[in-house]
Write a structure and sequence with these properties.
By secondary structure, the protein is α/β, with parallel strands linked by helices. 37% of the residues lie in helices and 13% in strands. The strands form two sheets. It has a seven-stranded mixed sheet with strand order 1-7-6-5-4-2-3, with helices on both faces. Strands 8-9-11-10 form a four-stranded antiparallel sheet. It is globular. Bound molecules: pyridoxal-5'-phosphate. Pyridoxal-5'-phosphate binds next to helix 3 and helix 4.
């Protein structure tokens, strides 16, 4: 049994001489703040260029980048933003933080991505944006439904670096704003960090102001709008630049080994694998099981065989999270979920989105994926999955 490279340590990260040089360059300069430094500004330029858009705004985390995006589309208190029940809580928290209401819709049973028809049915008079999540790196295509509703599309690309839509469009460039994470467990990392990209100069300026206390640095010391401090440091920015340069290699390696596992398991009955290998970012390798197979049973067998795999990805879909179903949001109050300002109480709690619930509870299995996997790692995973599913 081999040991699998892990994103928890150097075995499964691409941190090397370039990142060391980046950190010492910043430390030797004595300037650690991006307000006056050059690294984060260069990172933003490199990120925008890589995606063929005109603006990128760096932030202290992926959640912060999503908060910039939500603040950018400027919901009024009580306005609704539609998003996925299967995602990181960092997708949902910024909606609440802007006093808007997270509205969920059900998902596709094989990708776990928002189902466009369910999103269309969830649109209401107060829908202010659609926040699509490209789960595990598969593009969730909500372009048509957002366009039909006349609302901006925000893309959460935290798990979808260099993912593509079926027509080749790069994830993060399809809507108004694309948001990325540089946290420890993502494709590339600087510990914590985020980036929001857009082609819209108005949105870019609003996000930049929100990340820096509403303070236009090209002007006098005055505060023109509400903003927090979500700035990325120069140390993080310099590391992120080195990591961004390695991104195409990371994706190529993850796709090559994912292709091998997809091909090896293609004939296995009862398992569903992502189809478009070269468009997928393979943050994790998701497997969806047909009954009578269950994710907990198969994950148990894989764990016993030493394979880094888990059932469900989340313990519960986010529409069942106590943070939304029962906990106070601000002080002792449930504002903004309660009326006023919400016009309708969204559907939260068990039973609201049965496809998402079934995936988490019974059908979805995720295998950790990594650019350092060798063919031998893949073959070991394939063998263990085959045994777990057929025995
Ligand atoms: C990781 C992640 C986030 C949050 O990013 P952080 O950098 O951890 O704040 C948001 N959405 C998704 C889909 C994620 O995977």
């Amino acid at each position: 049994m081999s040991s699998f490279p892990s994103m928890a340590d150097a075995s499964g990260r691409t941190i090397g001489a370039e990142e060391l040089a980046a950190v010492s360059r910043v430390l030797q300069s004595g300037m650690l703040s991006s307000v006056w430094g050059t690294e984060v500004r260069a990172l933003e330029r490199e990120m925008a260029d890589r995606h063929g858009v005109s603006h990128a705004v760096a932030a202290s985390s992926g959640t912060a980048a999503l908060h910039l995006a939500v603040a950018g589309v400027a919901p009024d208190p009580g306005d609704e933003i539609i998003t996925s029940p299967i995602t990181d809580f960092g997708t949902v928290a910024p909606i609440l933080a802007q006093n808007a209401v997270p509205v969920f819709a059900d998902v596709d049973p094989y990708t776990g991505n928002l189902d466009p028809a369910a999103v269309a049915a969830a649109i209401g008079p107060r829908t202010r944006a659609i926040l699509a999540v490209h789960l595990f790196g598969a593009a969730a295509d909500l372009r048509a439904v957002a366009a039909a509703a006349g609302v901006p599309l925000i893309e959460d690309c935290a798990q979808a670096w260099l993912s593509r839509y079926p027509d080749g469009t790069l994830a993060g460039t399809a809507g108004a704003i694309g948001c990325f994470s540089l946290q420890q467990w993502k494709h590339i990392t600087c510990g914590d960090g985020g980036l929001a990209i857009t082609d819209d100069p108005v949105l870019a300026r609003r996000m930049r102001l929100f990340a820096d206390k509403g303070w236009p640095r090209d002007d006098a010391r005055r505060h023109v709008s509400l903003g927090l401090n979500y700035r990325m440091t120069e140390l993080a920015g310099a590391v992120a630049r080195a990591q961004l340069a390695k991104l195409p290699g990371v994706l190529a390696d993850r796709r090559r080994t994912a292709r091998r596992l997809v091909d090896t398991l293609a004939d296995l009955p009862g398992v569903h694998l992502p189809a478009d290998v070269d468009a997928h970012a393979w943050w994790l390798f998701p497997i969806v099981l047909d009954p009578p197979l269950t994710n907990h049973e198969v994950a148990g067998k894989l764990a016993a065989a030493g394979i880094p795999a888990r059932a469900g990805y989340l313990q519960q879909p986010l529409h069942c999270a106590p943070a939304l179903t029962e906990a106070p949001v601000y002080g002792a109050s449930r504002f903004p979920l309660t009326v006023p300002p919400a016009d309708r109480l969204p559907a939260y709690g068990p039973g609201a989105f049965p496809v998402a619930e079934r995936m988490i509870e019974r059908t979805l299995l995720v295998v950790d994926w990594n650019e350092r996997y060798t063919d031998a790692h893949v073959d070991e995973i394939a063998q263990a999955v085959r045994t777990a599913v057929t025995s």
